[in-house]
Write a structure and sequence with these properties.
Blueprint (H helix, E strand, L loop, with lengths): L1 H17 L8 H24 L4 H34 L10 H20 L2 H8 L16 H16 L7 H17 L5 E9 L2 E12 L8 E7 L9 H18 L7 E7 L13 H11 L4 E8 L27 E7 L3 H10 L7 E7 L11 H6 L4 E5 L21 H18 L2
Parallel strand pairs: 3-4, 3-5, 5-8, 6-7
Antiparallel strand pairs: 1-2, 2-4, 6-8
Helix pairs in contact: 1-2, 1-4, 2-3, 2-4, 3-4, 3-5, 6-8, 6-12, 8-12, 10-12
Length: 432
């Protein structure tokens, strides 16, 4: 509905521009406005039709919206180039009241139109709710990898539940649980404490870290991290008890192993709002500590939502323009990085033995792309370290993201265990 209203407003803007007196508007701008108006009409029709389409068809509508956004933007840029050429010519009228201002308004209009036409991704999120969740067996052998993952997710999401800065008692319980699990595995947890003003008082927050030694005190560092806090009001099974459980299982599997590279397993505080994207994130504090210590960081793995998979057709969505290059079924795990981390992403992908289920998809995109910068990897990028987000793609497939229904029974612990097994093999390779 948001996108549809945006299209309607932009369409009215285009019509108003077309109705300007002919002498005030360059022909290329007038042509563009007519094109944009037609684009807006078509976008509205497609959005309206979207609601009546079955899930298998609506994915095609999204792809068409995204493609039309590219066409709209291309025509906008071509007309803009023609306009600048017209300004440079000697016969440009000396008096063009308000023309430059209108040109910039049109440029803004063209950009937002392209975004709105490609923004059917929001509609896709509502469509995902119409896809039934896969039936996942809740009872697994407690001594199996899948059983251990399930037990840890249940404890964090059910026994403790909502855990964020607004619920300090639950946060303390989560910290104690993670620290006790590390101790039971034979590690000595290190608490990184930092204080921030929150709710009118200064509050202490904790990162919990353990170290698997490398070769020598100056060894390179691999960081494997997952945030343990939740979006306010949610139990956070997939986001992000699944990431914490996977990190604990990796720490269990790799304990006592040797390698040249040092491994830090870290449970981060404060990934969720209101801290996300700020220096108050636990991951930002930890990356800053490594920078202060002048440690060489080979790379960082951000374990962000690893538990939801679906074999239903068209159960996977993407940001505009990506749908043509990636599968439409949500049965894979994703590795996502910025361009500067591409070499580390390539090394990780080469070292990761892809299981039959789930498969693996990778993407290296600009850091400003929201699809790859929605977790603790962002903090390490800001300190100049390579980092990769390991994820089931969150809201691009999981309609329970940041809701009270993000509960343990929706996760596939068998596939989670397969991902952890692949990451274990990759870390062993990267350490040598």
């Amino acid at each position: 509905m948001v996108i549809t209203l945006a299209q309607l407003v932009l369409l009215l803007g285009a019509v108003a521009f077309i109705r300007r007196p002919a002498g005030e508007v360059h022909p290329s701008l007038a042509a563009h406005s007519k094109f944009a108006a037609r684009s807006g009409i078509l976008g509205l029709l497609l959005s309206a039709a979207y609601w009546a389409l079955p899930p298998s068809s609506s994915h095609s509508a999204l792809s068409f919206l995204s493609g039309f956004a590219v066409l709209s933007l291309a025509v906008s840029l071509a007309n803009l180039a023609a306009f600048f050429g017209w300004l440079r010519r000697s016969e440009t009228p000396a008096a063009s009241p308000g023309l430059v201002r209108r040109m910039f308004n049109l440029l803004l209009f063209a950009s937002v139109t392209a975004f709105a036409l490609g923004g059917g991704m929001l509609l896709e999120q509502w469509r995902l709710k119409r896809i039934p969740a896969a039936e996942v067996p809740m009872e697994l052998a407690p001594d199996s990898p899948a059983g251990r993952l399930q037990a840890d997710v249940r404890h964090l999401a059910e026994t403790i539940g909502d855990r964020n800065a607004g619920r300090p008692e639950e946060v303390a319980k989560a910290v104690d649980f993670i620290a006790s699990r590390f101790k039971a595995l034979g590690y000595e947890p290190m608490m990184q404490r930092f204080s921030l003003p929150f709710g009118g008082v200064v509050t202490d927050f904790l990162n919990i870290a353990v170290v698997l030694p490398g070769k020598g005190p100056d060894a390179e560092v691999l960081v494997v991290g997952a945030h343990y806090d939740t979006f306010p009001g949610t139990p956070g099974a997939d986001d992000n008890a699944s990431g914490v459980a996977a990190m604990l299982e990796l720490a269990r599997r790799l304990r006592g192993s040797t390698g040249v590279v040092e491994v830090h397993f870290v449970a981060f505080a404060n990934e969720e709002p209101p801290f996300f994207g700020t220096q108050e994130m636990g991951s930002y504090q930890y990356a800053g500590l490594l920078r202060q210590q002048k440690r060489r960081v080979a790379g960082m793995l951000s374990l962000e939502m690893l538990g939801y998979y679906s074999d239903a057709p068209h159960s996977q969505t993407y940001p505009p323009l990506m749908a043509a290059f990636y599968p439409s079924t949500a049965n894979f795990i994703g590795f996502a990085s910025n361009w500067r981390s591409w070499f580390f992403l390539r090394r990780l992908k080469s070292a990761y033995p892809v299981p039959e289920r789930p498969g693996l998809m990778t993407a290296a995109l600009p850091a400003w792309t929201g699809a790859v910068s929605l977790s603790d990897n962002l903090s390490f990028w800001r300190h100049g370290y390579p980092a990769v987000m390991v994820t089931d793609t969150a809201f691009l497939r999981y309609s329970h993201y940041h809701t009270k229904t993000d509960t343990p029974e929706k996760l596939d612990y068998v596939r989670m265990a397969a991902v952890v097994g692949g990451l274990e093999s990759a870390l062993v390779t990267l350490r040598h």
